[in-house]
Amino acid sequence: MSFEEDDHVVLHDEHSEFDGETGTITQTMESMFGDVTYTISFEDGQEAGVPEDALEAADVDDDEDEE
User: Fold this and answer.
1) Would you say 40 and 20 are in contact if contact means Cβ atoms under 8 Å apart?
2) Beta bridge partners of 23
3) CA distance between the termini of the chain
4) How sure is the predictor about 62, in pLDDT bands with cuts at 50, 70 and 90?
5) Does residue 46 fall inside a structural domain?
6) CB of 48 within 8 A of CB of 29?
7) In a domain, 24, yes or no
8) In the predicted model, is pLDDT for residue 65 greater than 70?
9) pLDDT score of 42
10) pTM for this predicted structure
11) Residue span of the structural domain in which 25 resides
12) Taking the CA of residue 49 as centre, how many other CA atoms within 13 Å lie in the half-sphere pointing to its CB?
């Protein structure tokens, strides 16, 4: 599954301080070999160069703001 900018994702990387957190993709980058990496923005910072296999689509409830 590929992701687009503004998609909400969960990061799964035990070496990252953002492991298990939900963030928003702010940039996609494709290498000359065709590999895509992502920059994800979190509430407390960002993580760059994240491979697609370390991401999972997040279930975001659009009604959260109405509570």
Assistant:
1) no
2) 9
3) 32
4) low
5) yes
6) no
7) yes
8) no
9) 97
10) 0.83
11) 8-59
12) 1
Q: How many domains does the structure of the chain reveal? A: 1
* Radius of gyration of the chain, Cα coordinates, nearest whole angstrom: 12
Distance CA 32, CA 11 (A): 24
pLDDT of res. 67: 46
d(CA 5, CA 67): 27
Domain contains 64: no
Per residue in 1-53, pLDDT tens? 789 999 999 999 999 999 999 999 999 999 899 999 999 999 999 999 999 99
Residue 40 domain-assigned (yes or no): yes
**DSSP code string of the chain:** ----TT-EEEE--TTSTTTT-EEEEEEEEE-TTS-EEEEEEETTEEEEEEEGGGEEE----TTGGG-
